[in-house]
Amino acid sequence: MKAYEALETEEERTKQFIKEYLDAVNSPDWKSKTVKYLRNSEGFLEEHSAFRKSFPDYRSTIQYLAVDGNKGMVWLNIEATYAETFAFENSSYGDGLLRNVEAKNQELSWEETWYFIVVDGKFGEKFDILKDNYAVLKGLGAIE
Q1: pTM over 0.70
Q2: For residue 103, is pLDDT > 90?
Q3: CB atoms within 10 A of CB 17
Q4: Do 15 and 68 touch, CB atoms closer than 8 A?
């Protein structure tokens, strides 16, 4: 029974972690609020700053969330306006496909799925993201 209770407690912490992180990343002062969740905040802040320059009104909403201990998978809906052409080199998150796609204040909506592990109150070494790039490019008029 103790093992079950411990697992249940850990899973609740994992759920709370991702909910709080998404609240932080959706916040206007996301830069200062997200740091406490990240192991490599410098690299993330540099790339996400460029992303947010292109998508200043970024907003993620949880569609589904599943956890197993400290491991989680979250399905998100993202809504944002493409306000400035993305120019960041060597994107770690696959956003390089936006380079040279002209921004015209296109309102976009797409889905993302994240797989993550939480270790000591931060994202662990394992973090994978699957983004519906087709929906992004189609919304931008970059493909038919």
Answers
A1: yes
A2: yes
A3: 19
A4: no
